[in-house]
Specification:
Order of helices and strands: EEEEEEEEEEE
Low-confidence stretches: none
Mean pLDDT: 95
Radius of gyration: 14 Å
Structural class: mainly beta
Strand content: over 45%
Number of helices: 0
Helix content: under 10%
Number of strands: 11
Oligomer: single chain
């Protein structure tokens, strides 16, 4: 069974940067969407950014211009570069991969991002 392993969370000051990484432990096929979601305390989980296997991008309005999602299809990895971080970006960030053709939906365990001075 494929698992997702996330890394890169932590504590950063406002205006700082962090890079999140997520690696799939096995084969995930060619046609899928890789995404990052986040959930802040007391709030619903929300989509942050997504990228399809053909490179189509989608960002939440709140992170446009600050966050960049990228993927390496050969390595089955997805990254999220987060710049100009704000306190409201504080949340647990989850990696997600779901199939477009094959019916699978895999989630990582989550990594904490805290933006605070």
């Amino acid at each position: 069974q494929v698992q997702l392993v996330e890394s890169g969370g932590g504590l950063v000051q406002p205006g700082g940067s962090l890079r999140l990484s997520c690696a799939a432990s096995g084969s995930i096929g060619r046609f899928n969407v890789m995404a990052w979601h986040r959930q802040a305390p007391g709030k619903q989980r929300e989509l942050v950014a997504a990228i399809t296997s053909s490179g189509i991008l989608n960002y939440a309005d709140s992170v446009k211009g600050r966050f960049t999602i990228s993927r390496d299809n050969a390595k089955s990895t997805v990254n999220l570069q987060m710049n100009s971080l704000k306190p409201e970006d504080t949340a647990v960030y989850y990696c997600n991969i779901h199939g477009v053709v094959a019916p699978y939906d895999i989630w990582g365990q989550g990594t904490q991002v805290t933006v605070s001075s």
